[in-house]
Amino acid sequence: MQSFQKYAIVVLGSLLIAIGTDFYLVPYKVLDGGIIGIALIINYIFGFRIGLVILLCSIPIFIVAWVRNRAFFYNSLTGMLVSSLFIELLAPFQYHFLYYIELGPLTSSMFGGFLLGTGLGLMLRFETSTGGTDLLANLISKYMRLNVGVIIFLTDGLIIGVGGLLISWETFFYSVISIVSGGIATSICTLKN
Question: Which N-terminal residues, if any, form the signal peptide (predicted)?
């Protein structure tokens, strides 16, 4: 039963991440942090597919996970594959979503970040992840007394700072809003009882 629950959380979390990415962040060239943020930067500059870039960028982190904690490796592999697949599957529906719902960059940044943070937080609560820097943050939190959401927030800040320099100052501003919203959602979902 626990295995089914974990897979259900992976699917739900991945769906939230894909919706937040494709429908809220991408239309306004807003970044998230972590591997998704790196994939978004590469997509905005070079046009490469986001899901594929996530897969390729996750390889070094999965190597670390394989060495340090095989359980997280296996749990995160599923999360990374499913979230990358959902991002690719939902991307063609972006136009249809924007046709009916247009929120503007500020609101989209908040909602997109919150959806990504909630999806990630749910997965982390069940000891799984998308295999990006959230996996690395989860491994670091085992050795340091920092909340996973705080570690992710710091990593995300670094990535969107670089993205802001490469893309635009406006992208940086809205991306800050996105990662703050996502960091809050992740922290709430990963609070210890």
Answer: none
**Side chain identity, residue 60:** P
Name the residue among 161, 9, 147 with its Cα closest to residue 78.
9
pLDDT digits (tens, 9 = 90+) for 137-190: 777 777 877 777 678 778 878 898 998 888 888 999 999 999 889 889 988 988
The answer to whether 1 and 8 are in contact (CB under 8 A) is no
Query: What distance in Å separates the CA atoms of residue 111 and residue 115, rounded to the nearest whole number?
Result: 6
Residues 6+ apart with CB under 8 A from 121: 149, 185, 186, 187, 188, 189, 190
Domains identified in the chain, total number: 1
Q: What is the pLDDT of residues 32-55, one digit of tens each?
A: 888 999 999 999 999 999 999 999
Q: Which domain holds residue 24?
A: 1-192
φ, ψ (nearest 5 deg) of residue 104: 90, 160
Q: In 3-state terms, the chain is what percent helix, strand and coil (to 5)?
A: 85, 0, 15
**Concatenated DSSP letters of 66-116:** HHH-HHHHHHHHHHHHHHHHHHHHHGGGHHHHHHH----HHHHHHHHHHHH
Residue 2's pLDDT is 66
Question: What CA–CA distance (Å, rounded) separates 73 from 76?
Answer: 5
